[in-house]
């Protein structure tokens, strides 16, 4: 188990969590230990996603970086988006879905890292997206004040709902029977069958993150130190607790034997893990904490053996038309297909709506592109001065 988090300081942190049996009559002891830090982005990190092999991070530098957690190496970068990467979601182990300021939603093959589908999803920014547990539907919200439902079987828009405000979070429940849409400090709960609002939860401060503990229990964090657990059916607050000394930026949860674990990250630099028993209305108890001494922005938990329902999205995500092809060398191939080769050539192409490559580039290639851009800007400035 490993905690991964990004920050404004452009660094990705990794903390391995060691679990030790407690003394007689005491709970298990959890201890986070610093495992790695990586400064791969040129701007603050804005999103993180994990599956059982990779961690991917999105940034304001318009790139998505890929990290192989089993080999502990950077795997490359995806450069298709033209704007800040606002949301990243894995579906199983086979696909990654991304959304950004350019209004695009991209579906990526999480094994070959090809861009399988690029959809112009919103007129404004894509602020959040979520894939239904079945893999047949996806939801997205954006700054065009719309909630859009996507039919992933046919690869097209299925339904568009106008909402009065810009929503910044959308999330399916674990069972897929309901979903929530967050606008500022309000959470609207929808039923899938009727696509209508069945209830609304309102908090005092802007909501920054939510996480379903179960189909009926929702953890809510915002621009304050408090985390609250709500019942989605009764709309009542089951309990609340002070999690941090500053606003909570991100929250996630997973289940272990006999209880749930809630993980929170804050602007105060701390990552904290909490033990929660859903059968009790008592606040969660602190399992462990670690101080990163950075302003955290996004959070994920990498579990070495993650159980997923499905690994494949429906076969709708056909590759986008290739305009031009070019050769480049990737990171060393896997041992099972290398056959003694030290390097392997792969191809990438451009889609019609972007001049950026749609396949992962090596870390050195990405840095070279950034340096070329900086040098080009300096040359233009010198020309203007001389004129």
Structural features, described:
This protein has 387 residues and is mainly beta. The protein has one domain (2-386): YVTN repeat-like/Quinoprotein amine dehydrogenase (Methylamine Dehydrogenase, Chain H, 7 Propeller), CATH 2.130.10.10. It contains two helices and 30 strands. The protein has helices at 335-338, 363-386; strands at 2-7, 12-20, 29-38, 45-50, 54-59, 64-68, 73-78, 85-91, 95-100, 104-109, 115-120, 126-131, 137-142, 146-151, 156-162, 169-172, 178-183, 186-191, 197-202, 207-212, 217-222, 226-231, 237-242, 248-256, 259-266, 270-276, 285-291, 296-302, 325-329, 345-349. The chain has a four-stranded antiparallel β-sheet with strand order 3-2-1-28, with no helix packed on it. It comes from Monodelphis domestica.
List keywords for this structure.
387 residues, mainly beta, Methylamine Dehydrogenase, Chain H, four-stranded antiparallel sheet, 30 strands, globular
């Amino acid at each position: 188990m490993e905690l991964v988090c990004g920050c404004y300081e452009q660094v990705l942190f990794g903390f391995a969590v060691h679990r030790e049996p407690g003394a007689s009559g005491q709970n298990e002891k959890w201890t986070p230990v610093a495992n790695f830090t990586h400064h791969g982005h040129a701007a603050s990190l804005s999103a993180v996603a994990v599956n059982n092999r990779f961690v991917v991070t999105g940034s304001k530098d318009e790139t998505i970086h890929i990290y192989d957690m089993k080999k502990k190496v950077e795997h490359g970068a995806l450069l298709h988006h033209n704007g800040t990467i606002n949301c990243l979601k894995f579906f199983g182990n086979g696909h990654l879905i991304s959304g950004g300021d350019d209004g695009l939603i991209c579906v990526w093959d999480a094994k070959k890292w090809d861009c399988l589908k690029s959809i112009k999803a919103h007129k404004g920014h894509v602020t959040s997206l979520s894939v239904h547990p079945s893999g047949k539907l996806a939801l997205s919200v954006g700054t065009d004040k719309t909630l859009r439902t996507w039919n992933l079987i046919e690869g097209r828009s299925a339904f568009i709902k106008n909402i009065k405000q810009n929503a910044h979070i959308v999330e399916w429940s674990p069972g897929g029977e309901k979903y929530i849409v967050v606008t500022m400090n309000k959470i609207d709960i929808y039923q899938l069958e009727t696509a209508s609002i069945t209830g609304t939860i309102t908090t005092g401060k802007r909501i920054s993150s939510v996480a379903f503990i179960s189909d009926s229990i929702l953890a809510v964090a915002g621009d304050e130190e408090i985390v609250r657990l709500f019942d989605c059916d009764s709309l009542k607050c089951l309990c609340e607790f002070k999690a941090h000394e500053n606003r909570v930026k991100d929250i996630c949860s997973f289940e272990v034997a006999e209880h749930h674990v809630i993980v929170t990250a804050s602007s105060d630099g701390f990552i904290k893990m909490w033990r929660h028993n859903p059968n009790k209305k008592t606040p969660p108890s602190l399992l462990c904490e670690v101080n990163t001494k950075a302003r955290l922005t996004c959070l994920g938990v990498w579990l070495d053996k993650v159980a997923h329902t499905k690994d494949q999205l429906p076969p709708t995500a056909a590759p986008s038309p290739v305009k031009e092809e070019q050769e480049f060398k990737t990171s060393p191939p896997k041992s099972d297909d290398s056959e003694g080769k030290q390097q392997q050539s792969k191809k990438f192409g451009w889609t019609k709506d972007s001049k950026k490559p749609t396949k992962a580039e090596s870390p050195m290639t990405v840095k070279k592109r950034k340096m070329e851009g900086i040098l080009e800007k300096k040359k233009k400035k010198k020309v203007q001065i001389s004129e």
